[in-house]
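Journal club side-thread
Mid-discussion, someone asked how the predicted structure for our own chain would compare to the paper's figures. Pasting it here so we can look after the session.
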Amino acid sequence: MKAVQALLLLIIAIILMVATGAVAQLPITGPLQCAREGHPCDIATHWCCGGLTCNRWFSGTCVTS
């Protein structure tokens, strides 16, 4: 029985570490907003609004898709 409890605690700890790691990578500068056309974008932190794609190879800004 104790082995099962230890295994459950280990699984919960791993889930919490993954969840907090993912949350820690999100931008903390105010509310999360999408970038509009012509505004700088980065797939990791700034995503483009609906219908736009991030042209990271050339301009690094959001463009119409």
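Post-session note: Residues 2-64 form one domain.
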